[in-house]
Amino acid sequence: MQSGTMHTNYKVIVYAVFLISILCSSTLYCAINKNDAHIYFNGKNLTKATTNDDILDLSAMNITGIAPGAFADNDAVKILRLNENLLVTLSSATFRGLNHVKHINLMGNLIEQLDDNAFSFLPDLEELDLSDNSLTALSPGIPKSLPKLRQLHLNANKLFLMENSFVGLQDLELLELTSNNMFDLYDGVFNGLDNLKHLDLYGNKISELRKDIFQNLRKLQELDLSENIIWLIHEGAFQGLKSLEYLWLNGNQLSTLEDAKIFQGLRKLKTLYLHHNPISVLDFNCFRNLRSATIEPGFRINNKIIMNISDFIKTSISKYTCAFENYNEPYTCHINITLTDANNEKIRKFGISDL
Ligand SMILES: *[C@@H]1O[C@H](CO)[C@@H](O)[C@H](O)[C@H]1NC(C)=O
Ligand SMILES: *[C@@H]1O[C@H](CO)[C@@H](O)[C@H](O)[C@H]1NC(C)=O
Ligand SMILES: *[C@@H]1O[C@H](CO)[C@@H](O)[C@H](O)[C@H]1NC(C)=O
Ligand SMILES: *[C@@H]1O[C@H](CO)[C@@H](O)[C@H](O)[C@H]1NC(C)=O
C-alpha cells in the first residue's frame, strides 16, 4: 500500500512536470517553481512571482517584461535577483509590494529606460545593481525615490551625467560608474552625495578635472579615476576632499605635474597612484601638501626610471631618493627637479647637483 501510494505520487509528479513543460513551451502561460517560489509567465513576460523565502531568484530566465503588480504581496523578500535577463524597460512601480526588499540585482539586462517611479515604494532598499545595461541617463525621480540607498552600481552603461544627477541619495556610501561614456565631469554632478565614501570612475573617457568638481564630497575616502585620459588637472580640482585617503590617477595622460596647488586640500591622503602616466615634467612642490602620503609604487617613466619619493614625503622637503631601475643604484637628489626627455634613454636635464 505504502509503496503503491508512493508510486501514484511519483506518477502524478511526472505527469505534472510533463504538463508544465508543454505549457512552458507553448509560450502562452507557464507556472514554474524555482527555490520554493511560484512564478507565472505570459510568454516571456513575468506576470506574478511570490515566495515566502527571503530570496526571490529570477536570474537568467530570459524575462523580457514584467507586468504591473507582478511582485504584489512579497513581504518576506529581502533580495530580488533579476540579473541576466532581457528586460529593456522598467515601468512605474514595477516593484511595488516588495515592502522589505533590501537588494535588487538587475545587472546584465538590456535596460535603456527607467520610469521616474520604477523604484518608488521600496522603503528599505539599500543596494541597487544596474550594471551592464544600456542606460544613457538617470531621470531625477530615481535618486529622489531612494533615500535609504547605500550602494549604487552603474558600471558598464552608456551614462553621461549632468548637474544634480544624484540629488536625493543622501545616505549613499558607494557609487560605481566604471566603463561608461563620461568624457567630462559636469559641474555639480556629484551634488547631494554628502555621505559618499567610495567613488569609482575607472575606465571612462574623462580628460580634465575641473576646479571644485568634487567639492561637496567631504566624506569620500576612495576615489578611482584610473584608466581615463586625464591630461589636465585644474587648480582646486581636489578641493573639499577632506577625508580622501586613496586616489587612483594611474593609467591617464598626465605629462606635466608642475602646479604646486593641484593636490591642495588632500590633507588625509595616504596613497596617490600615478603609475602609467607619460610624466615628463615634474615639480615636487606639487606634493608639498600631502603630509603623510606615499606616492606608489614610485614613478615609472617610460619603464626606464623608478623614482622613489616616499622618503621625501615622510621626512623633509629637501631630499628624496631616486634610482635607475637597471642599475638599482641609488642617488640622492635635491628637490625641485624638472625631468625632461624620458624618451632618450638618457636624462637630458635634472635640476639637481648630485647627479
Ligand atoms: C534562454 O534563451 C537561450 C537562448 O534562446 C536558451 O539557450 C536558454 O535555454 C534559455 N533559458 C531559459 C531559462 O529559458
Ligand atoms: C509585458 O510586460 C509589460 C511591462 O514590461 C507590459 O506593459 C505588457 O502589457 C506585458 N505584456 C503581456 C502580453 O502581458
Ligand atoms: C621606496 O622606498 C621605501 C622605503 O624607503 C621602500 O620600502 C619601497 O620598497 C621603495 N619602493 C620602490 C618602488 O623602490
Ligand atoms: C626651482 O627651480 C627654479 C628654476 O628651475 C627656481 O627658479 C626656483 O627658485 C626653484 N625653487 C626652489 C624651491 O628651489
TrEMBL record:
<keyword id="KW-0732">Signal</keyword>
<dbReference type="InterPro" id="IPR032675">
    <property type="entry name" value="LRR_dom_sf"/>
</dbReference>
<dbReference type="InterPro" id="IPR050541">
    <property type="entry name" value="LRR_TM_domain-containing"/>
</dbReference>
<keyword id="KW-0812">Transmembrane</keyword>
<keyword id="KW-0472">Membrane</keyword>
<dbReference type="InterPro" id="IPR001611">
    <property type="entry name" value="Leu-rich_rpt"/>
</dbReference>
<dbReference type="InterPro" id="IPR003591">
    <property type="entry name" value="Leu-rich_rpt_typical-subtyp"/>
</dbReference>
<dbReference type="GO" id="GO:0005886">
    <property type="term" value="C:plasma membrane"/>
</dbReference>
<keyword id="KW-1133">Transmembrane helix</keyword>
<protein>
    <submittedName>
        <fullName>Leucine-rich repeat-containing protein 15-like</fullName>
    </submittedName>
</protein>
<keyword id="KW-0677">Repeat</keyword>
<keyword id="KW-0433">Leucine-rich repeat</keyword>
<dbReference type="Pfam" id="PF13855">
    <property type="entry name" value="LRR_8"/>
</dbReference>
<feature type="transmembrane region" description="Helical">
    <location>
        <begin position="12"/>
        <end position="32"/>
    </location>
</feature>
<dbReference type="Pfam" id="PF00560">
    <property type="entry name" value="LRR_1"/>
</dbReference>
